[in-house]
Amino acid sequence: MSKKQELLKAAEDKVRSGGYSNFSFRELAKEVGIKSASVHYYFPTKADLGAELARQYTDNFMNLLGAPAKLKKTGKNPIKVYVTQFRRALLEDKKMCLCGLLGAETDCLPEKVKDETKRFFKLNLEWLQVAHKLNDPIDVEQKAANTLSLLEGAMMVSKAVGDNHFFDQATSWLE
Amino acid sequence: MSKKQELLKAAEDKVRSGGYSNFSFRELAKEVGIKSASVHYYFPTKADLGAELARQYTDNFMNLLGAPAKLKKTGKNPIKVYVTQFRRALLEDKKMCLCGLLGAETDCLPEKVKDETKRFFKLNLEWLQVAHKLNDPIDVEQKAANTLSLLEGAMMVSKAVGDNHFFDQATSWLE
DNA sequence: GTCTATAATTTGATAGAC
DNA sequence: GTCTATCAAATTATAGAC
What we know:
Two copies of one chain form a homodimer.
Chain A: H1 3-18, H2 25-32, H3 36-42, H4 46-65, H5 68-73, H6 78-93, H7 98-104, H8 111-135, H9 140-161, H10 165-170
The structure holds a DNA duplex.
């Protein structure tokens, strides 16, 4: 992994734990074994780092999902796959969704970070609409909004109450 | 309003916009017309302020709701009332739920702030279980978890995409 | 690419006067 | 209750050497 990717990975952990203000160039630098001035070589400003972090997170998240139609064709329920991906992020990483946290803080984020965060949600809503349409083509817009909100909220509350079982309880009715 | 309450109100706005790290004693002091050293007279540490903020927010939130049985008796659907209270917080204050944001940041919060945040969710889940039981006494625990998650998530995503209509879309199936 | 050095600002917190 | 004065630490960022 390149230094640049190491920095982004370190930043991801921090942001997913405590939000945008929970990482500093000095901390990241120390974790990857360089000096904070060198971080500015890769990312001119903190906003640049934050924006690239959200962008890569989004791209990786969508790539891991794959196309709804392809999932369906291999006998899987796309919505189930979607739920499982959120569940894994919570249980394995033991952390919030990066863009969930950033989304909640949106009013205080630099413009370019805000834009990338918004992009995450737009792409997820599109994906969910297509996925729902494959199951039952009625009210897909509402269903997509409902599914996404429920999963983000379930992650958040699970973290808050310190109980992963809560996530399964909250999402038990998702087809 | 006392200086202490003015400080808490100013802090609430900051936290609901950008999280726990988005307020400082100096900023709060300036907003209410005193010096930062004087803020320490009311709240010895930042964690003390944060904890009292979450506690008052919770108490106020529960008081505004009232008892589910009482709502039912006056011809209202308690769940509808509950949804409306979240909706108002988003549309009128144009801000996230205080404890929603704190909950997402929980791993990086001082212990006493974390505890008060947890209390908010525990009380809300209790309230929702009672409320759901009045409508249909089956699966009330799942229903409570589902309702709370959906509302917190819908607030979060609405903020992120900058569209209040999203909230209504996501929550349209809540009875 | 990485460093040293440093600037300018902000932060939480305390001591002690009034 | 509120102030001045101050501290130690952390923050984002830049200039310039190697």
